[in-house]
TrEMBL record:
Pfam families: TRM. Belongs to the class I-like SAM-binding methyltransferase superfamily. Trm1 family. One of its GO terms (molecular function) is tRNA binding. It comes from Halovenus rubra. This is tRNA (guanine(26)-N(2))-dimethyltransferase.
Length: 366
């Protein structure tokens, strides 16, 4: 089937039900790919010397072809011979050049360096993370689609993949973001690399992050300092964060005395850089099929408070046996009571605030 995405035309296989033999193409990931193009444009505007882009798991070649159309010096890699043929066909169809390699990307990244590396695997990216930190000069783009392990819904799998404790809370997508970033920061630290999140979002059952890599033991130590624990009470929705690698969890919830759960080490720092996010928004262009969605998402991300973790207004109001008022009125009350507050990209009824759960309850009481 023929599809047009961004400024390129592609042939992609019809996707059957379940895992088939055909080369993978997911039209739902167009937002992810549009944002990738915009992030790379914004990054190149800031760092004009970056040139090379590795589409590490290319499948149909869609990411590599779009990057080549945007002037990047592109390498496309996949282990699958059919993917490699299709990727080459799609480059040729658009009259574009690219270096197309049938290889295990872990081996390729062992031999070669790229300014920007894009990991877009099935499921967890962790089996590719060590090689990616060694083979990336500037910007590492990572997708993870294994949201159930990441957010603690598949607990053992999350512990195994990410070497941390994920907890299945009502802010599960943010738990996934912070677990993924924790694992990537700990992996980078082994090579004296500090990955700094420029943009991170959780959308439609995947997490996507763009990490600028800084080098040196001192900065890598600082990155590790941003890891810590979240203590969470499932009864009253109280939560608290503690930086550091040694957990000192309260024995019970300081708010209601019920049991407390510990997640971590997770990343407690900023998952986006708001100034960079605004330059990404300026790089979204109208040929992108998801331009409006991408712009809305970036606007929300840019304004989102960086504090962990978000609340869901409906969940809180249900817990307090109140009806949920209009979000804007609810957030205005919190703000008028002197608390920092923002909406979040995790959902229409979600917000972040510097207020505690008791302060939220008091400030928004009718
Ligand atoms: C989710 S698909 C990639 C989708 C594509 N990036 C897109 O945007 O449509 C994952 C691809 O990774 C490839 N793959 C799996 N293991 C790999 C490895 N070790 N090295 C390179 N490619 C690999 C698979 O063959 C598959 O084509």
């Amino acid at each position: 089937m023929n599809v047009r995405e961004g400024a390129v035309d592609l042939v992609v296989p019809e996707q059957g039900e379940g895992a088939g033999d055909e080369v993978f193409f997911n039209p739902v990931q167009e937002l992810n790919r549009d944002l990738t193009v915009a992030v790379m444009r914004a990054y190149r505007d800031r760092e004009p010397r970056v040139e090379t882009y590795l589409d590490a798991m290319t499948a149909s070649g869609v990411r590599g072809v779009r990057a080549a159309a945007d002037g990047w010096d592109v390498t496309c890699c996949d282990v699958d011979a059919d993917a490699i043929d299709l990727c080459q066909e799609n480059l040729t169809r658009n009259d574009l050049d690219g270096d197309v390699r049938q290889r295990d990307v872990n081996a390729l990244l062992h031999d070669d360096y790229f300014d920007v590396v894009d990991l877009d695997p099935f499921g967890t990216p962790i089996p590719f993370a060590d090689a990616a930190f060694q083979g990336t000069r500037n910007l590492l783009c990572v997708t993870a689609t294994d949201t159930a392990p990441l957010c603690g819904a598949h607990f053992e799998s999350g512990v195994r993949s990410y070497s941390t404790i994920p907890r299945n809370t009502e802010y599960h997508a943010e738990m996934g973001v912070r677990v993924l970033l924790s694992a990537l920061i700990r992996t980078g630290a082994r090579y004296d690399i500090a990955p700094r999140p420029l943009v991170t979002h959780a959308t439609n059952h995947y997490v996507r992050t763009y990490l600028e890599l800084d080098r040196g033991a001192t900065v890598a130590n600082k990155a590790v300092d941003e890891l810590g624990y979240i203590y969470h009470c499932e009864h009253c929705l109280y939560r608290e964060n503690e930086a550091g690698l040694i957990a000192d969890a309260p024995s019970s919830c300081p708010n209601c005395d019920h049991g407390i759960e510990t997640a971590g080490p997770v990343f407690l720092g900023s998952t986006c850089n708001p100034e960079f996010v605004s330059t990404v928004a300026d790089s979204v262009t109208e040929e992108m099929g998801t331009a409006d969605k991408a712009t809305d998402l970036l606007e929300t991300l840019g304004a989102e408070l960086s504090v962990p973790t978000h609340y869901d207004q409906h969940r809180l109001c249900k817990r307090w046996t109140r009806s949920a008022p209009a979000m804007d009125d609810f957030l205005d009350k919190l703000s008028e009571a002197g608390h920092d507050v923002s909406r979040t990209h995790y959902g229409g009824t979600t917000f972040k605030t510097t207020a505690t759960v008791d302060e939220i309850r008091a400030a928004t009481a009718e």
